[in-house]
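User: Here's a structure from my thesis project, written as C-alpha cells. My advisor, Dr. K., wants to see whether a designed sequence matches the one we expressed. Can you design one independently, without my sequence as a hint?
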C-alpha cells in the first residue's frame, strides 16, 4: 500500500489563515448554490446525548459536495455549562475525505469553522431575505457563533445601530465591547430581549436556553423585518410563524425531524410543513426560487446548520493553508 498522509489544521493554524469576511461568505455560499442545484448529498444531523445531567450533546453532520469533490463528517459537542469551566460551549472536529476512494484527506479543528459558517449562513440568509438597506440589528445571545453573525452581517450592511443581549451581564458587556473594538463602531449591550428586538430590521435569536421558553414575543417584531431564530431550545412563541410572509430554512430534511431546534414545536403542531415552507436557502442562492420580493414582507429564516457549509469552508481553508504552507502533515498509513 502506498503511503497516505493527511493534512491537519489545529486552531492556531486556522487563526494564521486570517480568513477574510468575504472569503468566509463566498465559501459557504458556494456550498449553498451546490445544494440548490442538486449537486450535494446531505444527511440530517444525528445527536448523541451521553447523559442528560451533563447538559450537553454531540451533533454529527455528514455530507458531500460534488463541485468541491469532497465528503465530510463533523462532530461537535454542544455543552451549555462549559462557561463555568472556562471553556467554550462548542468543540468540533471536521474530517474531510476523498469521496471517490474514502481516503482521509484532512482533519481540521472545527470549533471556529462552526462559528464562522453559522455566521455566514445568517449573513447569506439576510443577503437574500432582508430589506435592501436594513438599519438596525438586534441580536440575542453571545456564544461563539453570535460574534460571526454580527460581524458578517455588518460586513454586508454597515448597520447604523447594533444591539446585543445575553442573560449574563458579564457576557453581554464583554461581547459588546469586543464587537465595538473589532467593528470600529458602538455596539450597545441591552438588559432585556425586548430592548434588543423592537424596531430592529434584522432580529437574530441565538440564545442558550436550558429548556424551551417563549422569551421572544411575536408582537415585538417589526413589519418587514427578517427574523433568524436558531437557538437549540425554542425561544419563540407559536404565533411567530403566523405573521410571516415567507418561511425559509437551510435544509428541510433536518428541520422537520429531531428533538432540538427553535421551531420544533411549529413543525410538531403543523404550523410549519412542506406546504407552508417557501424554500430552502440553497434554492434561492442558486436562483431557482425567489427571496424577498418587497420591503413589506416579514420573513423568517431558520437554520439548523449544514454539513455542506462545514465542508465548503473547510475546503477553502485547506486550499489556503496548502498555498501558504500552514498546518501539519500526519502519517496515516
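Assistant: Designed independently from the structure alone:
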Amino acid at each position: 500500500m502506498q503511503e497516505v498522509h493527511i493534512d491537519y489544521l489545529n486552531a492556531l493554524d486556522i487563526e494564521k489563515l486570517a480568513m477574510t469576511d468575504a472569503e468566509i461568505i463566498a465559501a459557504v455560499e458556494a456550498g449553498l448554490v451546490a445544494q440548490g442545484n442538486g449537486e450535494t448529498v446531505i444527511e440530517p444531523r444525528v445527536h448523541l446525548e451521553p447523559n442528560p445531567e451533563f447538559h450537553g450533546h454531540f451533533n454529527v453532520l455528514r455530507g458531500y459536495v460534488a463541485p468541491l469533490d469532497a465528503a465530510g463528517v463533523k462532530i461537535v459537542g454542544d455543552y451549555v455549562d462549559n462557561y463555568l469551566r472556562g471553556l467554550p460551549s462548542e468543540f468540533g472536529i471536521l474530517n474531510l475525505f476523498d469521496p471517490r476512494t474514502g481516503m482521509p484527506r484532512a482533519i481540521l479543528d472545527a470549533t471556529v469553522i462552526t462559528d464562522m459558517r453559522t455566521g455566514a449562513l445568517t449573513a447569506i440568509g439576510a443577503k437574500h431575505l432582508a430589506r435592501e438597506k436594513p438599519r438596525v440589528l438586534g441580536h440575542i445571545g453571545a456564544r461563539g457563533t453570535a460574534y460571526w453573525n454580527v460581524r458578517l452581517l455588518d460586513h454586508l450592511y454597515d448597520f447604523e445601530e447594533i444591539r446585543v443581549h445575553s442573560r449574563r451581564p458579564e457576557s453581554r458587556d464583554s461581547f459588546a465591547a469586543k464587537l465595538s473594538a473589532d467593528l470600529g463602531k458602538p455596539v450597545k449591550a441591552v438588559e432585556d430581549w425586548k430592548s434588543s428586538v423592537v424596531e430592529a430590521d434584522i432580529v437574530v435569536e441565538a440564545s442558550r436556553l436550558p429548556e424551551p421558553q417563549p422569551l421572544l414575543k411575536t408582537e415585538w417584531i417589526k413589519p418587514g423585518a427578517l427574523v433568524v431564530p436558531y437557538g437549540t431550545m425554542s425561544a419563540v412563541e407559536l404565533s411567530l410563524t403566523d405573521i410571516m410572509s415567507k418561511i425559509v430554512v437551510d435544509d428541510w430534511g433536518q428541520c422537520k425531524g429531531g428533538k432540538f431546534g427553535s421551531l420544533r414545536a411549529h413543525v410538531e403542531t403543523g404550523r410549519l410543513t412542506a406546504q407552508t415552507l417557501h424554500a430552502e436557502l440553497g434554492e434561492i442562492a442558486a436562483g431557482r426560487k425567489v427571496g424577498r420580493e418587497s420591503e413589506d414582507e416579514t420573513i423568517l429564516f431558520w437554520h439548523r446548520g449544514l454539513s455542506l457549509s462545514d465542508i465548503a469552508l473547510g475546503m477553502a481553508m485547506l486550499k489556503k493553508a496548502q498555498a501558504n504552507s500552514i498546518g501539519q502533515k500526519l502519517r496515516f498509513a
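When you compare it with your expressed construct, this may help: The longest strand covers residues 56-65.
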